[in-house]
Design goal:
The protein is an alpha+beta fold. Helix content is 56%, strand content 17%. The protein is elongated.
């Protein structure tokens, strides 16, 4: 059933266009918010952003207290970076607010 649904979704060009537009817009909000926090991020055309937060694993653990999960990428030799998935506008704002709190401490 899941494969049938996935094939149908991939064939639905309107759905794909809307999904890509939403992802691009929300990713832009995420990058803008990170920039406002003086956090560098790499250009992305995907559903996630790599951001240089200083100590990736420490921030990841701190954000878990807020019920948020970001992924440190120290296993890839990038201990200062995290992988942040693009979510909804509400989720991005929630993440940015929690990051403001944690980075201020």
């Amino acid at each position: 059933m899941a494969q049938v649904a996935a094939i149908a979704a991939l064939e639905d060009q309107d759905f794909l266009s809307r999904t890509n537009e939403i992802n691009e817009r929300v990713r832009g909000l995420l990058v803008k918010g990170l920039t406002g926090l003086e956090i560098q991020s790499l250009e992305s055309h995907t559903n996630f952003v790599l951001a240089k937060t200083g100590q990736g694993a420490a921030l990841s653990r701190a954000l878990e207290k807020h019920g948020l999960i970001i992924r440190p990428v120290d296993a890839y030799g990038l201990p200062e970076w995290v992988r942040i998935s693009v979510g909804t506008e509400v989720e991005v704002e929630r993440l940015l607010q929690a990051m403001r709190v944690e980075l201020a401490t």
